[in-house]
Amino acid sequence: MKVNLIWNTNISAVKDYLDNKGLTINYSELEDHIFYMFEIEDVSRVTTHQLIRHRMASYDQESQRFSAASRESFIIPASILSKEEAYKIYNDALRFCVDSFEKLISLGVPKEDARYIMPHAIKTKLVMTVNAKNLKHIADLRTAPQAQWEIRELVSMMRDLAVRATPEIWSNTK
Amino acid sequence: MKTSVLWATPDPEKTIALAMRRCYSTKTLNELVSELESKGPDYWKHLIELAIRDKSFDVIEHFCILVLLEDFGEKEIFSISLKNPFIRFTCLKPKVYLASLNARTLVEMTYQDESKELALSIIKSLKEVGIGNLFISVVFGGMLIEG
Q: pTM of this prediction?
């Protein structure tokens, strides 16, 4: 899993502009107006289905109509990797799906239809733009112990990047 | 009424092009950025034209804009916010608002009677500070001549 912060709103520029005009805004009110754009690579579609349920954000994700699926491009949960028999079942199922996908393509089935057979475990890439208020909300929900391990790891990385870039907005947050 | 741009997405056209290529490519972020930088602004413009032609407005949502609005009425701001759930207003003092929105909302506002004047004023302010000129010429070119 890889997460990059591509850009974020320059808080100093905004605060300086307002100061020069004799206007004040507190950091809590500013949360609506501070944006972050992230690039996320190599997470499963299980996790992106969970992520995009947070609707107050903008997403653009690698389309399976155009990208090629390979045998290496799947997430394997630790609970499966750690049990030999479970791993064999999982691996056999993935292999069957990829083989079937390739056979369908070779029969002239368009990628956009052959992809229906692909499992949610497949790795994907996306960009996401979100403001601080909504990122805090997402972090509250998705870094909680009851969230699933993969989205917890993803959102923790996003939150850590946002904290490092704009500590003043996150100073009251764990 | 006065509109001033405080901040906007850096290199908005390259950012939109990046979002668009993300959908259709398996390349990593670094590979996509290298590709976009080597192909240059004509290529970014081409991608924006394709997005607008196909009504793929999701990619322009990554162009975010933060503006200061002075001498705007409360009722006017209220009616614009009702129509546009993705624009955020904070009242800093009577008649003065901090507003943030993305380029998709800006486009949609140009089609609304109650929002068009503000949208055109934001576009004019962006032009004055030299932000998003390429995007503005592709998306709003005809409208600005008409306006």
A: 0.94
pLDDT digits (tens, 9 = 90+) for B63-98: 999 999 999 999 999 999 999 999 999 999 999 999
Look up A53 and say whether it is catalytic. no
Digit-coded pLDDT (tens) for A118-149: 999 999 999 999 999 999 999 999 999 999 99
CA A173 from centroid of its chain's CA atoms: 21
The answer for B 68-127 residues in CB contact with A (under 8 A) is 68, 86, 88, 90, 92-93, 96, 98, 100, 102
Q: Is the ipTM of this complex over 0.90?
A: yes
Longest CA–CA span in chain B (Å) reads 50
Q: Does the structural domain A2-64+122-170 have CATH classification 1.10.3720.10?
A: no
What string of H, E and C letters represents the secondary structure of B57-110?
Answer: HHHHHHCEEEEEEECCCHHHHHHHHHHCCCCEEEEEECCEEEEEEEHHHHHHHC
All domains in chain B, ordered by first residue:
2-146 (3.30.1360.170)
Domain spans, chain A: 2-64+122-170, 78-117
